């Protein structure tokens, strides 16, 4: 497919999620606090944006253009989509361009992740000889944004005009897949250098209403946390809901353990500024998040407040996050990060450099979860590699970190995994992760493995 290779949700979100785990703080209330990730599926991560291969211009007999306009065509043909999009966007702001060149600019913008700028360029081509290509581009953008309910009708429109359109056929299949009800069985295991271990099994069912804009999930899980001195078995039921059509795109998660501490936990989130800012609040199961049996036995909970903001620029995208947890033992935890995903691709379109800073602080020291009273701050840099097609995807990531302040030390993190559709309706997911850092005045290691089987019902 020339315009996108869409990656399934688990295969995409996990590598980005793991990149933030070098110092062990959470990306969302469902993430781990000390130890390896626990496999929560409620976090939202930007989808993978595929940079297309260089291709021949849509029209064989292209019109003769002024040198500045022809340069855009040449950049596109050479595969320099970032420059083609940047210079093309500047030209469109000062002069009119022919429809073929407008499509080239729109594709270049979309393929390099600048979808906000690509949308009006595609919309200007919704009628005419390039309408099919523009509608495919718009549909792909909706898929990247998680709006498969909006993408599907656009693919159908293209196929009504051109039943053999390969891009629309693939996009239609992928969007249909994402809109289908699904059941996922998963198992995971994690351990760290404090001899803390967790095993976990989950059964999740997700579906949408007839509009496709309201997403529902029911999940049951059982987990066992183990230390040489304590053990805790937990079971829980979780309900999730998200509206993609309502203002602020609200989402809600309700969670209730059915063993140990039977208490209701709830977390809600809303989005502002064209989904660039997400704000969340709720009450969370700190015993589960701590991945520590003693914390679960002591029935620890926490009040959660958090915000996550994303902004894209010509040079890449920046994501900032801050989370506050008011723990029921009287402690408070603040974690934050700022991550830059570069648009620079020195090793090719599949290899994506990133860098950032992350930190964590606590008001008091606690034995059952990571609580650096002096703070812990790290600067990190690494690379994420992704390959994908309609039936499979693979990823690998690696990063190194250096201490900035407090109790932090040198660190590294690696992850790998992928997703493969064994049949049209059954997929296998595998994710592996390992890290090393410095915590509580000693070297710290953690690792995890996660395997799941996904069944579509359509």
What is shown here, in short?
This protein is α+β, with helices and mostly antiparallel strands and 458 residues long. The protein contains ten helices and 16 strands. A 16-stranded antiparallel barrel has the order 1-2-3-4-5-6-7-8-9-10-11-12-13-14-15-16.
Task: Write up this protein.
The chain is α+β, with helices and mostly antiparallel strands and 458 residues long. Residues 1-59 have low confidence and may be disordered. It contains ten helices and 16 strands. It has helices at 9-19, 67-77, 81-94, 99-111, 115-123, 131-144, 148-161, 166-179, 286-289, 293-297; strands at residues 182-192, 197-208, 214-227, 230-243, 251-257, 265-272, 277-284, 302-313, 316-327, 332-342, 351-362, 376-388, 392-406, 411-421, 426-439, 442-456. Helices cover 24% and strands 41% of the residues. Strand 2 and strand 3 form a beta hairpin.
What distance separates the N and C termini? 23 Å
Overall, the morphology is globular
Per CATH, which architecture of the domain at 182-456? Beta Barrel
CATH class of the domain at 182-456: Mainly Beta
Structural class based on helices, strands and sheet pairing: alpha+beta
Total strands: the figure is 16
Strand content: 35-45%
Averaged pLDDT: 85
Q: How big is the Rg?
A: 23 Å
What would the CATH topology of the domain at 182-456 be?
A: Porin
Indicate the low-confidence ranges by residue numbers: 1-59
Q: Give me the side-by-side strand order of the main sheet.
A: 1-2-3-4-5-6-7-8-9-10-11-12-13-14-15-16
Helix-strand pattern? HHHHHHHHEEEEEEEHHEEEEEEEEE
Estimate percent helicity.
Answer: 10-25%
